[in-house]
Amino acid sequence: MGSPDLEVAAVKSTRPSTTTPHPVVTAQPTTPVARWRALLHARPVLLLAFAFAVMADPVSSVAYAIEAALRALHGDLDLLLPTMGLVVALIALVIVNYHQLVARYPQGGGAAAAAGEPFGEAHGLQPCGSTRPGSRL
User: Fold this and answer.
1) In 3-state terms, what secondary structure has residue 48?
2) Rounded to 5 degrees, what are φ and ψ at 129?
3) What DSSP string describes the chain?
4) Could you say which of 29, 87, 94, 104 would form a disulfide bridge with 35 (CB–CB 3.0 to 4.6 Å)?
5) In angstroms, what CA-CA distances link 125 with 10, 47, 60, 114?
6) What is residue 21's DSSP assignment?
7) How far is CA 98 from the centre of its chain?
8) Tens of pLDDT, residue by residue, the chain (137 residues)
9) Residue 93 near residue 101 (C-beta atoms within 8 A)
10) How wide is the angle at C-alpha 115 spanned by C-alphas 131 and 126, nearest 5°?
11) What does the radius of gyration of the chain's CA atoms come to, in whole angstroms?
12) In terms of pTM, does the model score above 0.70?
């Protein structure tokens, strides 16, 4: 019927239950292999494994970015830090711009609302058209 590695044990729930006053029945692993299998399939372990699996892509991208920057600068390390500083400044500028846009249009609308208000409705639709695949201005 069940797995020979599991034993059924009645465990009282620590939460107050409004649906059933009966104890909660859980399957407890009894063999070392079953205990390891249960441990490896626990939520925190799976979350940690997922984090390491997803982390590999950004780490490799960062490593590639530094290599690509050094190749573009012909290995000149004196220019690497100023170049990276400019990249970080550009990212900070985009973040500040985004926060200003959200503060100005909290109800939404984004680029269409920001372009449409000062330049008219026709210009407000250009950002929408530029995001469509295959669109032409």
Assistant:
1) helix
2) -70, -30
3) ---TTEEEEEE--SS--SS--SPEEEEEE-SHHHHHHHHHTSHHHHHHHHHHHHHHHHHHHHHHHHHHHHHHTTT-GGGHHHHHHHHHHHHHHHHHHHHHHHHH-TT--HHHHHHHHHH-HHHHTHHHHHTSTT---
4) 29
5) 64, 42, 38, 10
6) -
7) 19
8) 445 544 444 444 455 555 555 555 556 667 888 877 777 777 777 777 777 777 777 777 777 888 888 888 888 888 888 988 998 999 999 999 889 888 888 887 777 788 788 888 777 777 776 665 655 55
9) no
10) 35
11) 28
12) no
Dihedral class, residue 74 (left if φ above 0, else alpha if ψ from -120 to 50, else beta): left
Amino acid at 103: A
User: Tokens at residue 116, please?
Assistant: 């449409």
Q: How far is CA 30 from CA 9, 41, 84, 104, in A?
A: 11, 16, 55, 61
Which residue do the tokens 């929408």 mark? 128
Tokens of 95: 């973040």
What DSSP element (H or E) covers 80? helix 80-104
Q: Tokens for 31?
A: 């063999």
